[in-house]
Specification:
The complex is a heterodimer. By secondary structure, chain A is mainly alpha-helical. Chain A has helices at 3-23, 27-56, 65-96. Chain A starts with a helix and ends in a 13-residue tail after the last helix. The chains are: A mainly alpha, B mainly alpha.
Chain lengths: 109, 191
């Protein structure tokens, strides 16, 4: 499978995430779109790792291992990020009785 | 057409459709369910690339843990209806056009590049034997630091989510709770 197909797929998923962040007002949906963007990047990293593995050939049989470990660490960081982010959203909901990001404009004043 | 190509196109189409459903659906619960479908499709892509460890971790961590957390929060807040005000259609249009322009620019920049092949369905770098060996020899320090990161995230989530002082609770809510308790013949709590 050519690597370009994976690049196009990841780009499409990433741009869908960007559009969601730009257009939606619900902070939970915005957060889910950020997760979607993270996953698009993970998919691209794995595809590049397999491309690198194929290009290195039999001289380096473990080429591309690091990229998959980086994806693993990205997942670790994403899990920690989600727990803190959802706590912030719950706090926002408790203070304003809404999850609309338009209420988070106090830094503007 | 090879079986891997057919699977690639099916998984890609399913992932894109469900990703669009995440953004477009009015009900947040449907968004969460669509995102779970997207994550399963991405896990299918990992299996297709023979990265089986990441496929399993993706299902367990993302589809299993993170999305359940999202579902819990949405149901806790009783948001399973459209609470978003429908205003400013122009901002939505501008956001969609901006994202689409980014996609067009990036695809146009990449269209002329020569394409290497990604290894599909073979190669054993994604198996848990190889990854575990490297993770616990070369990357053991980042692995241990990740546990500290989790500890700090846990403490942070508890500190942020902790209910501060009773005075912050609106008086109307307290009265509602008291009325509910009285109607259930439960002894009322002292304020």
């Amino acid at each position: 499978m050519p690597i370009n197909y994976y690049i196009y797929l990841s780009l499409a998923l990433f741009v869908i995430g960007i559009i969601g962040v730009l257009t939606r007002r619900n902070s939970i949906i915005i957060f889910m779109c950020i997760e979607l963007m993270l996953n698009a990047v993970n998919l691209l990293l794995v595809a590049f790792s397999k491309t690198h593995h194929l290009a290195a050939g039999p001289t380096n049989p473990t080429a591309g291992t690091e990229a998959q470990l980086f994806v693993f660490f990205i997942m670790v960081v994403a899990a920690a990020e989600v727990s803190v982010g959802l706590a912030i959203i719950v706090m926002l909901y408790r203070n304003t009785r809404s999850v609309d990001v338009a209420f988070l404009n106090r830094l503007k004043h | 057409m090879a079986i891997t190509a057919i699977l690639f196109y099916i998984l890609s189409a399913l992932a894109l459709i469900s990703a669009i459903a995440v953004v477009a659906s009015k009900n947040p619960v449907y968004s969460v369910l669509s995102l779970i479908v997207t994550f399963f499709c991405i896990s299918g892509h990992y299996v297709l690339l023979n990265a089986q460890f990441l496929a399993i971790v993706n299902i367990i961590v993302y589809a299993g843990a993170i999305m359940v957390l999202f579902l819990f929060v949405i149901m806790l807040m009783n948001l399973d209806k459209d609470t978003e005000p429908q205003k400013n259609k122009w901002m939505k249009l501008i956001g969609a056009v901006a994202g689409g322009s980014l996609l067009v620019v990036l695809v146009a920049a990449l269209r002329q590049t020569e394409s290497n092949m990604a290894q599909v369905g073979s190669g054993d770098i994604g198996l848990i034997q190889n990854l575990g060996k490297v993770l616990f020899t070369e990357y053991v320090v980042p692995f241990e630091i990740a546990s500290i990161l989790f500890l700090s995230a846990m403490v942070g989530a508890v500190v942020i989510g902790k209910r501060e002082g009773r005075s912050k609770v609106p008086q109307a809510d307290l009265q509602k709770v008291r009325r509910a308790q009285e109607s259930m013949d439960v002894p009322a709590v002292e304020a």
